Each structure stands twice: as structure tokens, then as C-alpha cells.
Amino acid sequence: MSVDFSSLISTCASLFLLIALGFVLRKTGIVDEDFSKKLSTLVAKAGMPALMIYSITSLEFSSEKLRNGIWILIFGSLAHFLMAVLAKLIFCRVRDVDEKKIYEFGCIFCNCAFIGYPILGALFGETGLFYGAFYVVTYNLGCWSYGVMLMAKGKAGYKITLKTIFLNVGMISCILGFLLYALQVPIPGFLRSTAMHLGNLCTPLSLIVTGSLLATIPLKKMFTNKKRPRRGLRSTHGIYCEAVCP
After folding, report:
1. Are 72 and 88 in contact (CB under 8 A)?
2. Which residues contact 181 (CB under 8 A, 6 or more apart)?
């Protein structure tokens, strides 16, 4: 599998410009906090499920690819577990409960889809997106279980159940995509095209949201403060938290 590093540089530059665009839109008042939250919900509940299904079903079925994907599931699960342990150790001395849980969440759950997918696509094409989808499954499973439990600390009456873990847009889209792939169910071209277009919304919208959030932080504090304001600690992976822990 060849790697095109020139495409990687171009992709990273475009990602940076999308964040800059979000920053400018927020500063000029075109995007406000309410609109930013709605964009987050749109990405989490419409764009991301479509992206998962399209990525998993984009390649022809192969038992070897499926076997490799299962290994990625195992690796991804171990990686998230180890990061959870490390996050506990690293931030054990943070006294503020709200800041501590945000630090831990950000340490454990990376932007493996919103930022990772464009980079995987630039480096490895559809094959990279296919294998990346397996890793995102472990992200979704951890995010909607341990991640939600972590962010729900201090919220009265919130409980983590099997329903909240598995019956959500993230996990349902993953399971549906894998079933369609494993059972080799033919997908009409117009449905595949729709999923592709919806999935393509994820990266630009999520990065615009990130840029708009950065615009709420004074530039001086952004680069000189060791502890940033709480609102500035949210990033694109925080979209999931906003969707399930409002």
C-alpha cells in the first residue's frame, strides 16, 4: 500500500483552514453558541452514522479484510483501556471535578473520525477508511459507555445502561454497517451516494465548530495560561458529550 505524503500535507493544511474559518465566523457573529450546538448535533446524529456505514461498505467483501478488522477492534479496545488508566494517573491531582473529567475525556478519546478520517483517506484511500471504521467502533463503544459515565459525573439521576451504550446513533450505525458488509447486502447506488455526501459533512462542520469554540478564548490566555478556560477545553470529540450529556 503506497503512502502519498504530499496529499497528507495538503489535507492537514485544509483542516487548519477549516478551523480558522470557524474562528472567523464566530468572531464576526455569523456562528453563535446556539448554532454551534446545532451543528454538533447534526454531525453526531446524521453525518457520523452515514460516514461509518459508507466507510465500512465501501470495499468488496474479503475474509482477510474482516480478519484484519477484528484485530484492529482488539487493538483499539486495549488502546482505549490503557489511555483510561494513564488519564487517571496523570490527572489524579486535579481537584476541580469538572476540569478533571474533561482532561481525562480528552486524553482517552482522540478525534479519530473527524480529523483521523481525512488523514487516513489522504494516506491510504478507501482501504484506510475501511480499517479506520473498525477503530472508530471501539471509540464509540468506549465513548458512549465510559466516556458518558465520566462526563455525567455530578449530573443527578443520570445512569449508564446497556441501552445507552448500544442503542445510540454511533453504535447502531457501526452494527448496521458491519452487518451489511458481512452479509454482502447489495446497496443501491443512490443510497451509497447519499451516505457519502452526508459523511463528507462531518469533517468541515466539526472543525468549524472547533474553530468557533477557540474564538471564545482570549488569544493571550490560549498560549500563556497553563489552565485554559473550561469552555476552551471542548473540542470536536466533545460533540459526542454535547449530544448525550446536555
Report:
1. no
2. 56, 57, 61, 66
> Containing H/E element for 77?
helix 63-90
Which DSSP string corresponds to 113-182? Answer: TTTHHHHHHHHHHHHHHHHHHHHHHHHHHHIIIIIHHHHTTT-TT----HHHHHSSHHHHHHHHHHHHHH
pLDDT in tens, 201-239: 888 888 898 899 888 887 766 666 665 544 444 444 444
pTM: 0.75
Largest CA distance in the chain: 54
Closest C-alpha to 78, from 169, 149, 141: 141
